[in-house]
Amino acid sequence: MLDNLTQRLARVMKTIKGEARLTEANISDALREIRLALLEADVALPVVKDFIAAVKEKALGEEVVGSLTPGQALVGVVHREMTRLMGEANVGLNLATQPPP
Questions:
Q1: Which CATH class is domain 2-86?
Q2: Predicted TM-score of the model (pTM)
Q3: CA 13-28-40 angle, 5° bins
């Protein structure tokens, strides 16, 4: 799943690389690729829809700092939203539980 998402994000960065700023059109193209990667990874459709909507909302208002490309700015927004979605706290696995009989 992560390899597929990484490959799609790299492809998105290549397509946005020549753009001067984040626009609704190039954000929509990028989010289409991300949506497909998440769905191929068996992420639930309602989760994907909420995630894409949150990324789109934040990316449209994102200022691109001079040292960043629009692709890097978009990846930053996606990273922050994935971190929020998956939980910011690092919780270990409880391996001492009993398996079902």
A1: mainly alpha
A2: 0.71
A3: 75
In the chain, domain spans: 2-86
Tell me what percent of the chain is helix, strand and coil, each rounded to the nearest 5: 65, 0, 35
Distance separating alpha carbons of residues 99 and 16, to the nearest angstrom: 47
Q: Does position 50 have pLDDT exceeding 70, yes or no?
A: yes
Q: How far apart are CA 6 and CA 88, in angstroms?
A: 20
Task: Compute CA distances 28 → 46, 61, 63, 76, 78, whole Å.
Answer: 18, 14, 17, 16, 13
Question: What is the tens place of the pLDDT at every residue in 75-92?
Answer: 888 888 888 888 878 777
